[in-house]
Amino acid sequence: MSRRNPTAVWIVSREGKRGKAYRLRWVDPRSGRWCSEAAGRDLAYARMRRDQIKGELRDGLAGKLPEVTVSELAERLDGLMAGKSPAQTIGRTKDSLRILAKLCDPGHVSAIDRGTIMDFRAKRVAEGLAPATVNKDLRQIRSALSYAVDAGYLKANPLLRWKGLLMREPQKVVRVIEEAEFGKLQAVCQNPALRALLTVAYRQGLRRRELSQLRWAAVDLDGGVLHVVNVPEAGEFTKSRKNRSLPMHPETKAALTAAWEAAPKRIEGGKAVAAWPYVFCWPTGEPFKLDWLTREFAALAKRAKIPPCTLHDCRRSFSTIAQRIGIDRSIVKDLGGWSSVTVLERHYTGDVGDVYKRAMDRIAQATG
Fold first, then answer.
1. Do 316 and 338 touch, CB atoms closer than 8 A?
2. Residue 82 pLDDT > 90
3. Which of 70, 90, 174, 298 is spaced 20 to 30 A from 311 at the CA atom?
4. Confidence of residue 2 (pLDDT cuts 50, 70, 90)
5. Minimal CA–CA distance to 228: which of 201, 252, 207, 210?
């Protein structure tokens, strides 16, 4: 294969077990090195991508892009990802980019390609990290590169078609806190507010942050409804940024009623209202911190002498128990605020063998 002109891009096909696959090849006019890119099994896509690359080479767009390093991109994510969670989404994406810069030193963002990512993946695995952890890094890097495209630092995301880059993850066993175990947790909990929080977590499936941000204004004890809402003016958001209203489980209503009666009040407009906005808080009105909830729950599990579990396992237990009694997964998804049934099935569903057994018994009865 010889180079015919500076903008030549070739489509190379190869027969495999699953049929014909295409790859693009061209020469980088700046370095003179051969470049390649997988184009999948769709010839139309390969031709479209070939024309895009030829246009970039012809117009010289690669040379006109600003030279932004990976570290600089990490520093600019606060502005590029405005609206995302600063501590969770943005912070973790920054961490992944910084690790990429440290391990692979790609220099400028434009130098990142699939080879760089494969090298990064291999080095992370060599450090002994689990496939799930490596995949989180890869997803965050891919997301950051998409923002880099939007900002004009890249012409296209090199990881847009990334089949084969993610590592295969072994199926995890979902930890389900059974009713007897939950009773032991409640029995060893001496903090009334924390005990009420555990009830809401276990019976309603709220996330840890949703529990810590729950306000009395979102609790309708008369109607028996719990509102999980965003409070933008306070910087409090649900993970999906969606509001949801949940009918209260009887135990939830009883626990929140007791918490309301014990909460300090003040008179406003001739009516008694909570002195502090948060349901689960210290006597000073400060809501329970996330890290404190994590540590305290671990200590409770140890004192209760049950197998190790986390507060988030209450959410997994809510999902699994609901499915065990026959609640449709789409309904469980809406109650828990999951983005899709796939996420619910993959990460939040434990042993529901009894459901399948009952289904087969019904089939057997119907077919004689």
1. no
2. no
3. 90
4. very low
5. 210
Q: Where are the domains of the chain?
A: 9-64, 70-150, 179-356
CA pair distance 260, 187, nearest whole angstrom: 21
The whole-angstrom separation of Cα 211 and Cα 256 is 12
Neighbours of 31 (CB within 10 A): 9
Do residues 300 and 189 touch, judged by C-beta distance below 8 A? yes
Q: How many residues appear in the chain?
A: 368
| Whole-number percent of the chain with pLDDT over 90 | 49
Per-residue CA distances from 121 to 15, 39, 93, 231, 337 (Å): 27, 21, 16, 38, 32
Close Cβ partners of 38 (under 8 Å, ≥ 6 residues apart): 21, 22, 23, 114, 161, 164
80: Cβ–Cβ under 8 A, 6 or more apart, which residues?
Answer: 147, 148, 150, 151
Count the neighbouring beta carbons within 10 Å of the beta carbon of residue 172.
9
Taking the whole predicted model, whether its pTM rises above 0.85 is answered as no
What distance in Å separates the CA atoms of residue 260 and residue 272, rounded to the nearest whole number? 11
Domain 179-356 falls under CATH 3.20.20.70:
no
3-state secondary structure of 13: strand
